[in-house]
Amino acid sequence: MHRLNSICTLSHTLIEPRACMNDSEWKANDSSSVALEKFKRDSVYIDRNGKLRNFNHKKVSRKKCGSLRGRGWKYGSGFVDGIFPVLSPTAQEILDFLEKGVESEGIWSSLEKFPATLDLWDDIFTVAVQLRMRKKWDSIIWICRWILLRSSYKPDVICYNLLIDAFGQKLLYKEAESTYLQLLETRCIPTEDTYALLIKAYCLSGLLEKAEAVFAETRNYGLPSSAVVYNAYINGLMKGGNSHKVEEIFQRMKRDACKPTTETYTMLINLYGKAGKSFMALKMFHEMTNQKCKPNICTYTALVNAFAREGLCEKAEEVFEQMQEAGLEPDVYTYNALMEAYSRAGYPYGAAEIFSLMQHMGCEPDRASYNILVDAYGRAGFQDDAEAVFEDMKRVGITPTMKSHMVLLSAYSKMGSVNKCEEILNQMSKSGLKLDTYVLNSMLNLYGRLGQFAKMEEVLTVMEKGSYVADISTYNILINRYGQAGFIERMEEFFQLLPGKGLKPDVVTWTSRIGAYSKKKLYLRCLEIFEEMIDSGCYPDGGTAKVLLAACSNQDQTEQVTTVIRTMHKDMNTELPV
Fold first, then answer.
1. What does the DSSP 8-state code read for residue 21?
2. N or C: which end of the chain has fewer CB within 10 A?
3. What pLDDT, in 10s, does the model give residues 215-234?
């Protein structure tokens, strides 16, 4: 059993958690041998050049982690970007030990070798914050459970909140619920953070009724409308896949006279951006500024991203310039978003210019930066440039991930370079990357597009006999490729297999099937399948309308399809371009 070395010498048997640390005078030398005096312990950090620096506590981070060393942890608070409190030798040793993946009993036994001191209490929560930043939820649970079950410390609300957060992130809502009840049984008073985390835990598990019940309970406890609780509610809904309810909660927030914060507006801008509604994201940004709510770097980045997803590079650059005029320095996320805008607009050299600008401004590109540039060249058909960037990434010491290989694979796939794509697959296997369904679907689509159906069937066999799960996208590719090639019977065979595989046809499945008959101008058969589609509860999109219209041979048929689609458009209250 690895023994953690004790640094502390005090031996208290019962320690009440303290709220903050006293200032302490101490000295340290940076790389220039300059003595630093009278720094607060939690004000010091080591920058990327290895120099000892200090920072302003009032700055807010874009990373949700904890408050600073010795000050516990609060949901929604955090460190300044890229700045973390210095871990004591004890805290660093605990963190290193936890990262080895030791079982809970081993962790508990090791922690018990330390005398229960105030310094150890601070170290434990500093480590918990570091673990939260790295999303090591199991380790957080082990540490907090040790405090509750085995240590001589008296747990406080921070400990319970960390546990609720960790259980919520792991979708263990019953355990989060149990922790909340335990908090009440110990006569510990829940804070707004407690309710915020519990609401988020329920939302992540899709239990919206329970989330509403907790929200109502905050009123029973006499807590005022809180932006912390509302933000957690909105965040949970977005991450739990219930974005449709976000607008309702946002409007309720304003009706309750709870002023939306920068975080609130940033989340809404992100929501609209991901939904491809950049105009709504911009509207939200204008509402924010009109309400005298100051945008931060995350807000501007979210808005740049919203325009980037639609390839609106000029709009994205306008926002980029506004951010600089507001006195905010772009970070790697902002540069990446702007690169993405040029990539999606089909301007790879524009993306390359932003990449160079980022380096010139002293902002170091990350793996995502290289991936975006590889993708930008790949989208434009410049696969040699894409591979050159890929090799540059490895040369600077960044290990390519599955995503990195996929964007390069996509670049060669667009050009139909089968041999090169197969070479990339071999390279992925040699790198220790496990091929997944998404990768094999890409190869399936490539072979199908080139008419190499024998190889396509080979890939399908590998998926069925291996540990890969063929999903609806797999069968959509098969149905579409065989249908477009005129192999109607084989297409229908795959369609008939779906129920037995536990897969439900989606709009792509039905549209691909209709499209196969549309190419043969079998109008009546297309209408039959369209009716099957509607009866199954699947509704058409613009692609469905397009293939239906393509099946028409005369004006009467065109008018009939147009009437059906427009009628459905009114009933669904959605946009279908006809």
1. P
2. N
3. 888 877 777 778 999 999 99
- Who wins on pLDDT, 112 or 90? 90
Q: Could you give the dihedral angle defined by the CA atoms of residues 189, 193, 199 and 201, in that order, rounded to the nearest 10 degrees? A: -100
**Cα-based distances in Å from 353 to 257, 276, 320, 394:** 45, 25, 14, 20
Model confidence band, residue 395 (pLDDT cutoffs 50, 70, 90): very high
The distance of Cα 435 from the centroid of its chain, to the nearest Å, equals 21
Query: CA-CA distance, 20 to 71, in Å (whole number)?
Result: 5
Tokens of 513: 């099937």
Structure tokens at 561: 């399809």
What helix, strand, coil percent values describe the chain, rounded to 5?
A: 65, 0, 35
Nearest to 10, CA basis, from 117, 88, 114: 117
DSSP per-residue letters across 171-239: T-HHHHHHHHHHHHHTTPPP-HHHHHHHHHHHHHTT-HHHHHHHHHHHHHTTPPP-HHHHHHHHHHHHH
Q: Which amino acid is at 497?
A: L
Q: Which of 490, 477, 425, 429 is nearest to 450 (CA)?
A: 477
- Domains parsed from the chain with CATH numbers: 260-365 (1.25.40.10)
The Cα–Cα gap between 128 and 268 comes to 29
Q: What is the dihedral of CA 249, 254, 256, 262, to 10 degrees?
A: 90
| 79 has a pLDDT exceeding 60 | no
Of the CA atoms within 13 Å of residue 514, those in its CB half-sphere come to 30
SS3 (DSSP) at 459: helix
- CA 243 vs. chain centroid, Å, equals 14
For 52, the token pair is 């000892």
Q: What is the pLDDT of residues 236-258, one digit of tens each?
A: 999 888 888 999 999 999 998 89
- Compute the distance between CA of residue 238 and CA of residue 44 in angstroms, rounded to an integer: 35
Q: Cα–Cα distance between 347 and 380 in angstroms, integer?
A: 8
Residue 346's closest CA among 320, 381, 371? 381
Amino acid at 217: E
